[in-house]
Amino acid sequence: MKIARRVTDLRPYLFAEIDRKLEEKRAQGVKVISFGIGDPDVPTPGPVVERLCREARNPANHRYPSYLGLEAFRKAAAEWMGRRFGVDIDPQREVVSLIGSKEGIAHLPLVFVDPGDTVLVPDPGYPVYASSVLFTGGLAYDMPLRAENDFLPDLEGIPAHVARRACLMFLNYPNNPTAAVADLDFYERVVRFAEKYDIIVAHDIAYSEITFDGFVAPSILQVPGAKARCLEFHSLSKTFNMTGWRIGFVAGGAELVNLFGKVKTNIDSGIFNPVQYAGIEALTTQENFVRDMCEVYRRRRDLLLACLRSRGWEAPTPRGTIYVWMAVPQGFDSASFATLLLEEVAVAVAPGSAYGDAGEGYVRFSLSLTDAELEEGIWRLETLRL
Ligand SMILES: *Cc1c(COP(=O)(O)O)cnc(C)c1O
Fold first, then answer.
1. In order of start, what are the domains of the chain with their CATH numbers?
2. pLDDT (0 to 100) of residue 14
3. Rounded CA gap, 268 and 275, in Å?
4. Mutate to test the pocket of ligand 1, among 105, 231, 234, 237 (most ligand atoms within 8 A of CB)
């Protein structure tokens, strides 16, 4: 059997060894507390579920949906962008619905990247950026996200000869896995950089609504002129606890969105209409739900941080996302510390090195476990003997 290089070249799955140990523990009957996975534990709001059920009974919704998204969904998404960010989006030409933002992100390089082209990707980062570049034969150039730069890429540190060859840049704030946030001033610098080197910017803003302590995440599209070279990938997954539903949207200038739509039309045939109606329900009626979820995550964040700090472990206070990004104690690396927690107290965390070389020396705690599991996990962390 011949296997394509794009598959054999995929980065080895670094969770594999830890997953094996986790399964081993579970097989022994040990209850593992998992801070490993970012997937909201609280159910999707009731009215959203009700809307799906109602729409699913309508035979008109059983046929192929529109390729680029229900007009009503695109309108709801555009209006939400206006209310939330003050960004003017034309529902006809500047937004396309996605089967989850991961789908859009994974297909985007097909629009802009030829074999041998350079793409700037954050390191550590959501693994889909680098793998989607690899699938097109492009070359991913890592932009390290370091604590001394507040986990923002150092744009001035990118060599000019690399920037000149780059055609695309991925960004993600509020950030997974570092939990860092970005302000409008940073996005302005990104847009100027992209204009200077003729680069398209793909901004993954999946955690836009999960922020704390008064921080409100801006959209890169708020920067004057940004629409011409930025596409922003929005997701309903983390905002409305809809990870299983597979719905999001991409917004940006008409020319970029049109190009993206051309590729997408050749790949899938849209999203089940009832899921899009449910998405409309979420975008138009669930503001209070989002506010309450932020309060849930903030409370969990503070409980976990207090525990980590009582042990003398260092973690900045995140202003967004459902994660805490912690430097591992002296004498460990990401994998050995994650393994220690699993073996000694049956607590699972994600090793930072799984998200890229610059993630080495960190672990990521997710806050998407139940309050009871969180309490148990905290108690276990307090009893760990080092
Ligand atoms: C969870 C997550 C997404 C969301 O993906 P969907 O496909 O919309 O569920 C996108 N980007 C990052 C960085 C994420 O953590």
1. 5-43+288-383 (3.90.1150.10), 46-285 (3.40.640.10)
2. 65
3. 15
4. 237
